[in-house]
Amino acid sequence: MFTYYIVIIAAALATAALGARFAQSGKSWSRTIRVPDWTPAGRTIAIVWAILYGMSALSAIFAFSAGGGGRPDMLAALFVVHALLNVSWCFLFFIQKQIGSAALECSLVALCVVMLAISVFPLSVFGALLLVPYLAWSLYAMALTYAIFRLNV
Fold first, then answer.
1. Are residues 56 and 45 in contact, defined by beta-carbon separation less than 8 angstroms?
2. pLDDT tens across 100-147, in order?
3. Cα(92)–Cα(5) distance, integer angstroms
4. Closest by alpha carbon to 56, among 88, 73, 81, 92?
């Protein structure tokens, strides 16, 4: 069980680090685009994501502590897909500068969070509830990305 904890924490840190690297690479470009007035400061966004990655890792720890359900490999795969989708948004937005694609991709992030919460709920109600703020932020990020797209097309 301890191995799960190490893998989960390492995966969360790797996801955050890769996303931050993409964001840093596109920082100069992102300063040139128009954004809505309700866009949070970059530092705020970074803090929120750090908290959400931590909450997601805790959700996974609670789920796997309960045995991971009948198919722990499927639950692990869903968490991996979720991490890849998060990194993909950063890649699409900051590296490829595909704002519209990033907005659409963000809907997949939100859908994946819903799937995770549904999968985790029978194993750990608290673990599923830890994903609710992630869903809220993902929906906010989707709306923000779409608004940025509209302002820059």
1. no
2. 999 999 999 999 999 999 999 999 999 999 999 999 999 999 999 999
3. 30
4. 81
Q: How far apart are CA 65 and CA 148, in angstroms?
A: 40
- Exposed, middle or buried by CB within 10 Å (0-12, 13-18, 19+), for 43? exposed
Question: What size, in residues, is the chain?
Answer: 153
Q: 71: phi > 0 → left, psi -120 to 50 → alpha, else beta; which? A: beta
For residue 137, give the amino acid letter: W
What's the pTM value of the predicted model, to 2 decimals? 0.91
Amino acid identity, residue 93? F
| Cα angle 95, 79, 38; round to 5 | 50
The first and second tokens of residue 133, run together, are 């703020």
Q: Evaluate whether 90 touches 109 at the Cβ level (below 8 Å).
A: no
Contacts with 151 (C-beta within 8 Å, 6 or more apart), sequence order: 33, 34, 35, 36
Burial environment of residue 140 by CB neighbours within 10 A (0 to 12, 13 to 18, 19 or more) = middle
